[in-house]
Write a structure and sequence with these properties.
globular, alpha+beta, 5 strands
Length: about 290
């Protein structure tokens, strides 16, 4: 596991102590996954971790939701610009529950991380494999506004022309930031794939992305292409047979299967949750009587 190797190398990073030995999935992301990397590209790693049981089910420690001291949940751990093993690393590691929620919401970065080519998967447990095997189940029409919104963000960054370091060099050379530009093209192409096929191949348009990144498109060409693509995808959205929103019961079952694989049967835990809700409901009814 790459993060474990980076930690063991003595790099100055501070993940939770339990994270190192509970990784369920790690994959390369960024330009490496999209097939447009070069020798100067950083190593961008996304992953899924299984937190200690009490951080996922805090009621087992006696916590009552909304009352008294609340246990700090684990959402994600991120650290960037880590120098280790002769490379520069960026890590984004998500707790299983937060990861599945973001995936169900069709967050573009999270979806990318489970649609990476097999060659990019650094390590996986049975939990990671379950998530990847069910990745198409997560896709729905809600992906289009998400991918379009992310593309708008990249375009706004291009137009601001505020950058330092390597980014400033791109602007000086090409007149605009071609790295942001290829992300605009990538995001809109991915949105199209999802609506048209209910699937995603994040390397499908790599030659086009390489061309954009090399500065072979003018900014005017990029803007015109994006406008045309957006109109096309707005029409495709209405015609697509993809479900309008997430199949929450099905995704929940995948999450429960992952949790049970790691923690064991959840029947007792889930019953405890039901008992707690029933008790709180009874308290609420009693309070109404006063």
């Amino acid at each position: 596991m790459t993060l474990r190797k980076v930690i063991d190398s003595g790099a100055h990073i501070t993940p939770p102590r339990w994270l190192r030995d509970n990784l369920a999935y790690e994959t390369m992301m960024g330009s490496v996954a999209y097939g447009v990397s070069n020798d100067s590209s950083d190593m961008d790693v996304y992953g899924v971790v299984m937190p200690p049981k009490e951080l996922v089910f805090p009621h087992i420690t006696g916590e009552i939701s909304g009352f008294g001291r609340q246990i700090q949940r684990f959402s994600q751990w991120q650290e960037h610009g880590i120098k280790a093993l002769d490379k520069t690393w960026d890590f984004s590691i998500y707790g299983i529950v937060n990861f599945m929620q973001l995936a169900m919401d069709n967050n573009p970065n999270i979806l990318d991380s489970i649609f990476t080519p097999v060659r990019c998967v650094i390590s996986t447990t049975a939990v990671g494999t379950m998530i990847r095997e069910n990745r198409r189940l997560l896709l729905h029409k809600g992906s289009w506004p998400k991918f379009k919104g992310y593309a708008y963000q990249q375009m706004s960054k291009i137009r601001s022309k505020k950058a330092t370091g390597k980014r400033a060099e791109l602007i000086e050379k090409h007149g605009y930031d071609t790295k942001f530009a290829y992300h605009v093209v990538r995001l809109l192409n991915q949105g199209e794939q999802i609506l048209a096929t209910g699937d995603m191949d994040i390397e499908l348009c790599r030659e086009q992305l390489k061309s954009v990144r090399r500065g072979e498109w003018t900014l005017e060409q990029l803007e015109e292409w994006a406008k045309t693509k957006e109109r096309t995808l707005d029409e495709l959205y209405t015609k697509s047979t993809l479900r309008h929103g997430p199949d929450e019961p099905a995704v929940r079952q995948v999450l429960v299967d992952c949790l049970e694989h790691h923690y064991g049967s959840l029947s007792t835990l889930l019953n405890t949750v039901s008992d707690e809700r029933r008790l709180l409901g009874q308290i609420a009814e009693i309070v109404k009587g006063y």
